[in-house]
Amino acid sequence: MALKRYDLNIGKRMESIELPEEHVVQVIDGGSVSKITDIKQATLEAVRNPIGTQALSKLVHEGDKVALIVSDITRTWSRTKDYLPAVVEELNNSGIPDADIFVIIATGTHRDNDDEEKRLILGDALFARLQVFDHDAYGSEANVFLGTTSRGTPVYIDKRAVEADKVILTGGITTHLFAGFGGGRKSVMPGLAGVETIKHNHLLALTDEVGGGVNQETYLTKIEGNRVSEDMCEVCAFLNPCFLVNSIMDAEGDFVRIVAGHWYDAWYAGTQEVMKLQGVEAKAKADVVIGSSGGYPMDINLYQGMKSYAPAQMAMQPNGIFIALLDCPDIYEPPSFFDCFRFNDELSMEKELRAGFTIPFYIAFYMYCMSKQFTVIMVTRPENFDAVRRTGQIPAATLAEAWTLAQKKLMAQGKAETYTVNIMPHGVNTVPMFK
Asked: CA 403, CA 409: separation in Å to the nearest integer?
């Protein structure tokens, strides 16, 4: 029985484990891709050779009032300020002066952004040149009713965007826990939507019947048949933006692709690029998954580190065991997430979620449900143990201790000699793909 050592990041250090090689199915980890070195040139090439529509210069005309939709301060990873100047330059060269361009920050139900945050989103130059507005999801006068989707979602959209002659979406594309992927239509729903629209759409991530929990057809990377995503697309179609520019970033936060063109076609092409970046062909699901989010800063708190849980679940057998390595020096942050673990049972938590759906609440509910469906052991700091137990997980101080707990569970399942293991060193940025 040959033992092999596996090293995984946790916080700013490493944890190691030695496992019999014959029990390890696969180390599921992505490869490297080439980075964009000239962001301006890549942006101009994208908007001049778009996907699914004409070049941006042919879609806008002198006299048009153009609304640029940008992500808020919580999405600065998409680095809007680095590629948006090239988009504005292309508009200027196409007969659209700065006076006819304005920016709407797609806050959804998030708070407004202060001036310093707007500078971080747009960069100093564009912030000084263009009018900038925050979307208001709660203002009855700020949003216009456009109709109802096939799933009954009332469509209220930012009045400024509706009244613009042309709307251009920007943002970034990555995987999303229940919408499949972010980016694209999410700039409109929830970005520019009224609170009633957002609540009705997001509740589609749960089953129709109370007590059913998470809708199993709304999950990471799924687009077709994902009713949350499809409803978002219907909402976006009411506004029908004329163009889209989205970035795709690697795990280091560098540009690997910029996609531009039709608001759906270009976004969809971008999702396929994300899968080339994050998707890894997996051999088989395993009884145990040992996963790291990649270490600091991805595991600075549970809210961030939890992004590795859905990919791990995809690589795990039913009734499997997940060992998560998360340092979490700020485990209670943000309070809007951790305060959701105040319930003693799934049903009470679900009812409260349905009454006041928020993304942090849904993520907490997903984690709580996962801890009931699987055995989840979290390697973390001893001072976090009480907090970990609140989430339904089992705490452990070291990977060796977690493996001992996992072995006892495997023995109880009659798998002491037959167990299989998948290892995911960068779970936040890895998606197992099965044929």
From this structure: 10
